[in-house]
Amino acid sequence: MTRALRPRSAYRHWTPIPTRWHDNDAYGHVNNAVHYGWFDTAINAWLIKAGLLDVSSGDPIGLVVETSCRYAAPLSFPQTAEIGIVVAKLGTSSVTYHLGVFAKGCPDPVAEGQFTHVYVARGSRRPVALPENWRAILEGLS
Q1: CA-to-CA distance for 69 and 82, rounded, in angstroms?
Q2: Can you point out the beta strands (E) in the chain?
Q3: Whole-number Å distance between alpha carbons of 22 and 115
Q4: Is pLDDT at 74 greater than 70 in this prediction?
Q5: pTM to 2 decimals?
Q6: Is the pLDDT of residue 2 over 90?
Q7: What angle do CA 78, 81, 84 make, to 5 degrees?
Q8: Domains in the chain, ordered, with CATH?
Q9: What's the distance, Cα to Cα, between the start and end of the chain in Å?
Q10: Within a 10 A sphere around the Cβ of 100, how many other Cβ atoms?
Q11: How far is CA 17 from the centre of its chain?
């Protein structure tokens, strides 16, 4: 039996993302691959806002090692997606997020995803422990 998708109340931070004309596929709805871009955008926007991501010179950096998405209903241009995020698991050098995709103002999710970053040293690309101050900030999104 498949588990029901998580409700809005399961998420701690929200990023609105307007759909674009070219997000629609031949079937008239947002293509499944677009959802992964939304996940990346929502998480990285939050990391920048939280002071944990400096794209040009930050160290450590997060590399995506796993993603997944379950779909329940379509979105189409010109709808706005609202992407909810929450930290689901905080490891020594990794963070796993759960993400919910909702049509703006709608109570039911249209999709949900999982996204894992492993943090590595910028130069060596070898895993490193998350800095303690980062852990405290990430725990706030739990």
Answers
A1: 15
A2: 13-18, 61-71, 80-90, 94-103, 109-120
A3: 24
A4: yes
A5: 0.93
A6: no
A7: 175
A8: 8-139 (3.10.129.10)
A9: 27
A10: 24
A11: 12
